[in-house]
Each structure stands twice: as C-alpha cells, then as structure tokens.
Amino acid sequence: MDKSVEFTVPERCYIDGAWVDSTSGDRFESIDPATEETLASVPKLGAAETHRAIEAAEKAFVDWRARPATERARLLRRFGELMGEHKEGLAHLLTREQGKPLSEARGEVDYAQSFLLWFAEEGLRLYGDVIPSHRKDARLLVLKQPVGVCGLITPWNFPYAMITRKLGAALAAGCTAVVKPAEQTPLCGLALARLAEEAGLPRGTVNVVTGEAKAIGKALMESESVRKVSFTGSTETGKLLIAQSAATVKKLSLELGGHAPFIVCADADIDAAVEGAMASKFRNSGQTCVCANRFYIHESLYDVFAEKFAAAVASLKVGNGLDAETHIGPLIDTAAVEKSQRHVEDARNKGATILSGKEHASLGRHFFPPTLLGDATDSMQIMYEETFGPVAPLLRFREEEEVAKLANDTPYGLAAYFYGRDIGRVLRLAEALDYGIVSVNSGVFSSERAPFGGVKHSGYGREGARVGIEEYANIKYVLLGGIAT
Ligand code: NAP
After folding, report:
1. Distance from the CA of 176 to the center of ligand 1, in angstroms?
2. CB contact at 8 A, 430 and 384
3. Is 255 known to be catalytic?
4. 64: part of which helix (H) or strand (E)?
5. The pLDDT value given to residue 361
6. pTM, whole model, 2 decimals?
7. What are the pLDDT digits (tens) for 8-33?
8. How many CB atoms within 10 Å of residue 217?
9. Distance, CA 265 to ligand 1 centroid (Å)?
C-alpha cells in the first residue's frame, strides 16, 4: 500500500470519545472484495456496548443541543473540511473496502463531504415561526427542537455518504448519534469517527458501533432514549424496523430498495440516453438503490439504442478499482454475484438474448461482467427483483400510457428516469411516474441540495436539501398568554 494515500483507521469502535473493544473480545474482518485480502479486524459489538453508546449520546445531547447553532456549524464545517483534506486516503480506503473504482470513490468522498458542509449551513437556518395571533392576550410561537439521540443504520454501497447524509443533518439540528455501519464496510464508518474526533466534536455526540446487526438494531429500537432512527438498506430490514419502532413510538426515516424504470421516448436524443443509461446502470457496478433496473425503449429506436448501448457496455473494463483503467469493480460478495448470475440465467431461459456480456475473465470470485439483455419480458425475475449488479434488460414499448403503467407496476417507488423532448409528454410522464425522484434527460441526479427519498415500499422521509434537517427536529407550538395589559 502506497503510504502517501494510506488513511489509518483505529481498529476499534468509538464510544463516548474513546476507542473501545467489545467486552467479549469478539472481532470480525473487513475484506477487500477485489482481492479477498483481509484489510483489518474490528470489534463485534452487541447490545451491551450499544446501550453504553446510547447513554453516552444521551449525556452529550444535553450540552450539544444547548450550544449556539454557530458553534455546531463551525464544528460540522471542520468535520467536512477534514474529509476534503484526507480525500485521497479516504478514497483509497473506500475502494479497498467496498470495491468501487477510485474515480467513483473520490466522487463519493466529495458527495459525502457535501452533506456535512450543506447541513452546517442549514443548521443556521432552522427557523421557527411567529404565527399571527387569534387572541389579544397571546402570541403563538413555533420552535424547532432537536429530536434527541438518533440511531443511524447504513448500508455498504455508499459507506461514507449514507452516514454523512444522516449524521450531518442530525448534528446540525442539535441531535447526537449512534452510527451502525454495514458489516462489509466498518472501516469507512470508523474513518468518519476518527475525523469527527479530530474535528473536535464533543465526546458522545458521535458514536460508531460495528458488530451484530440484529443485537445493535434491537438495542437501538427498544431504547426509549433513542427518539429517532434513520435507516438506509433493504426493504425487508426496513419493515422489521417499522414493526420494532411501535413499542417506543419512534420517529423513522427509511431509504429502502428500488426498482427504477428507464424510459427512452421516440423523440429522445439517443446518444444522450445511452450515456445516461451507462451512468445510471453501471455506477458502483450496478450496486446503487437508484440504479436503472428495467429499460423501456420506444420500438422506433429500440434497435439503434440497443446497438449503441451494447457497444458502450462492451467497452467497460472490469478490474480492481485501484487500477486507473477500471470502470467496473468487484461486487461486494459472492451472494451479489450469484444474484446477478441468477437473473441472467433466468432471463436467458425465458428467451432474452445477450447483447453484451463477456464471460468471466479469471479476475476472482467477486467479479461479474456487465451484461445487456435484449428482448426481456415481464415474467423474468430481473423485471421485479432488484438485481444490485451490472445487468440491464431492454424491452420495447409503443404507447406513452402503456409505458407509464408498466413503469409504475412495482411495489417500489424510489427513482425513475426518462429521455424525451416533447414538453407535454415530459410533464405528463414526470407527473404520472409514482416515484420519489424522476430524472429527465439525465442519468445522475443526486445532490446534497435536492430531496432524496422514495414512496411506497421504497420508504419515507427525505434526506439532503432544506427538508433533510427537519427530519431531526420536533415542532413545538408555544402559546404565550397573559400578555395583554
Ligand atoms: P440490509 O441488509 O438491510 O443492511 C443495511 C444495514 O442494516 C446494514 O448496516 C445492516 O447491518 C443493517 N441491518 C441488517 N439487519 C438488521 C436488523 N435486523 N436490525 C438493524 N439493522 C440491521 O441492506 P443491504 O442488502 O446491505 O443493502 C442493500 C439495500 O439497500 C438495497 O435494497 C438498496 O436498494 C438499499 N439502499 C437504499 C438506498 C436508498 O437511499 N433508498 C441507498 C442505498 C442502498 P449488517 O451489514 O451488519 O448486516
């Protein structure tokens, strides 16, 4: 490892401002998905340590919420600046632990940093209201106050950004947090704890616990002190958390799975649509919750689109993300490879053609060739299950109404894409698509300043944007009476 780009992460958890081991001494390993080499081992914490982290966050909340917003903003900004100062080290760590190509890892560091800087500003503008009164003797005030201790549970596909998108908003609103990174990317989570410490965030405001998901999750969900849980991950786990939240009536934000349609209308700019399709489908090797899952192409340009898309897919280089030429890194684990494999086999058995998709070079067990499937049909698994891998199925459509119906025929509702120029159709489709995010003539849309989130089984709540901080604030109505002379 080149020392100049090494970012050292303590191989311990961060609770109450101290780096700690599990009481049992149990640990688990972080593995480089490209080489299957062990990068480090980290503590396998359970319920007891999570309770300690919650207590620390509860104690820290008293002071943190009382600090001037300007001071919270200053510390949060410093946290963000440190991400920038350590960008190369953080990007290399991310590529090694998660597998994405370095250029994408650098992009994620920027994206993750943007949430800390954005919410440092938004915390300064968490305004309340003074409502024109209905009574002479009273004034009506609305205060926005921090909800309290927050549990933040995050996935492995964007291990920095999924944490900062939550943590930045929570801290800016005056909340404290217990963060649970994913099993596959604990080092990225602990790297952020190191930077939070270096930025001078008071002990207990940020706690990072790695370990047993079920035990940590249950401890967070059962705690009366934890007033909010924000979760990004699978719909299955999200539903479990909804059930677990009932006993303590906990506030929840859920960013869950998706099954994004990508529609190319008859008047679309084909080259732009191919470029957008590549960005949407193959970023992070297809492992994003907003990746296009189904491509509906108008029959009049299906053949041309398929040919150009296939050529672009064939030009992708698969390899270790540390190699500057790599476009597609490894998938996160063998289960992910098996799912992509299963979707391709099922589609082939049901009549799909392989338009692009070279057989595996002997890169390792976690690599899967980017694959384009032609003549897909609704009965194929890939049409209703989230692949989370680099496989794209193409279908033909004829009518606008038909395609809107097909696009909405899913329990999910996170992101949808379409390409077209007719202004009437653009507006009609944007309104008709039952999704939290609709991206028109663009394969990428994420920004710290825009609201991210889904509808239906893709969850509820929004992250980023002006509204992102509101998720961490309680609204309090204060009636000030007895003031008439
Ligand atoms: P997952 O299994 O639900 O895991 C996500 C996080 O939840 C991990 O930290 C995991 O810990 C934890 N977890 C698992 N079981 C838990 C439990 N019983 N209680 C509390 N926490 C628990 O999801 P995944 O398969 O890793 O992630 C991929 C999914 O996330 C996809 O469906 C994708 O669409 C979705 N996703 C959504 C968004 C979005 O913004 N909507 C963004 C990214 C990903 P362990 O890792 O230790 O098991």
Report:
1. 21
2. no
3. yes
4. helix 47-66
5. 61
6. 0.97
7. 999 999 999 999 999 999 999 999 99
8. 21
9. 34
Residue to substitute in 234, 290, 446 for testing ligand 1 pocket (most ligand atoms within 8 angstroms of CB): 234
Instruction: Kindly report, residue by residue over 121-166, the tens digit of the pLDDT.
Output: 999 999 999 999 999 999 999 999 999 999 999 999 999 999 999 9
Q: What residue's CA is closest to ligand 1, atom 13?
A: 213
Query: Angle 161-173/69-85 helices, nearest 10 degrees?
Result: 160
- CB atoms near residue 247 (< 10 Å): 10
Q: Helix crossing, 69-85 with 186-199: angle to 10°? A: 130
Dihedral sign, Cα of residue 207, residue 112, residue 146, residue 470: negative
Candidates 97, 197, 212, 255; catalytic one: 255
Kindly state the tokens that stand for 309: 């898309």
Type of residue numbered 318: V
Residue 265: active-site member: no
Tell me, what amino acid is at 28?
F
| For range 335-340, the mean pLDDT | 97
Q: What is the mean pLDDT of the chain?
A: 97
| E strand map for 44-184 | 129-131, 139-146, 149-153, 176-180
Q: What's the average model confidence in pLDDT over 194-210?
A: 98
Q: What number of residues does the chain have? A: 485
The gap from C-alpha 351 to its chain's centroid, in whole angstroms, comes to 34
Q: Which two tokens stand for residue 441?
A: 């003539």
